[in-house]
Amino acid sequence: MKLALRALLTAGLLLASTTASHAQSSNWPNKPLRWIVPFPPGGAMDVIARLLGEKAAKALGQPVVVENKPGAGGNIGTDLVAKAPADGYTLMITSIGMATNKPLYGKLSYDPVKDFAPVSLLAVVPNVLVVNPARQTFKSVDELLVAARQKPGQLTYASAGNGTSIHLAGELFTSLTHTEMMHVPYRGSGPAVADLLGGQVDLMFDSVTSARPHLISGKLRALAVTTPKRSAALPNVPTLAEAGVSGYDVSPWYAVFVPAGTPRPVINRLNAVLLEAMKQPDVVARFEAIGAEAIGSSPAQLAAHLTHESTRWAQLIAERGIKPD
Q: What is the pLDDT of residues 278-304, one digit of tens each?
């Protein structure tokens, strides 16, 4: 009798919880949403969040307020979202750091998998291997490799900091080509590009977004893009795999996550709104302008992507002994 009563009470609690969750999600949203960007304003991530946030606000009938919470390689903003209520009113755009920060930092104040629910992949913004033609005469990846092998450890490549996609792109390149180059980390892409333009460093695996204006002006020369297929923004530039670096793939991605426990109907609605927004002509045009290539995915596809990326980058980080700044 006691077991039956206990089972009945448990079933009642579960039903009440499910009913409350359904009522909460059916009334969602009834107040503004916070969209956390765990990096400073101005980059591709920030541009994408503000563009899609504006579209989402119109579709949902509530403001979507973008808040930049930079610091610690994205960990400050990510931790904030991990600890936010799972009510559908806080979401986060993030990048490859979701897969790399755990092996880079060791102990984190959040778990990238357990503390978040995936919503959708948004876009890939390729990196591009660039050199300053005033400093180096390389016109192809082959010429760069010849020089790197003739002068082991003497060529320098800039990055936006240890563990960033720009740094990992260089580490993967030297690993697959069995070459040695000196990594020069900066605090952000801006100062790294400035020194590349000034001739203080030899090359960089920069984001297409920040590199393209300098490619157009002729101040930088593109040798190859880091993605498996050519970039629509630089259609005449080969991929590193096409240039002879077999198996090379660095695809800096952006995706949306919410706190774990967010009601499934809310996640599905957010997913649908974001996928629809990325089809709109002005969004497509803006993506093209910053070199972003829309992807879109289901929550399950994003979860699988995160697992795959976490495994591959943890292996490279361990093999190369990469540490955060």
A: 999 999 999 999 999 999 999 999 999
Kindly report the number of other CB atoms within 10 A of residue 89's CB atom. Answer: 19
Please give the sequence-ordered ranges of beta strands (E in DSSP) within 32-115, or none if there are none: 33-37, 64-68, 90-94
What whole-number distance in Å separates Cα of residue 309 and Cα of residue 103?
12
Per-residue pLDDT reduced to its tens digit, 91-126: 999 999 999 999 999 889 999 999 999 999 999 999
Per the listing, tokens 């292996």 go with: 315
What residue ranges define each of the domains in the chain, with the CATH number in brackets?
Answer: 32-123+252-320 (3.40.190.150), 127-225 (3.40.190.10)
Give the pairing of strands 182-185 and 156-159: parallel
pTM for the whole thing? 0.87
Q: Which amino acid belongs to residue 164?
A: T
Distinct helix (H) and strand (E) counts, the chain: 11, 11
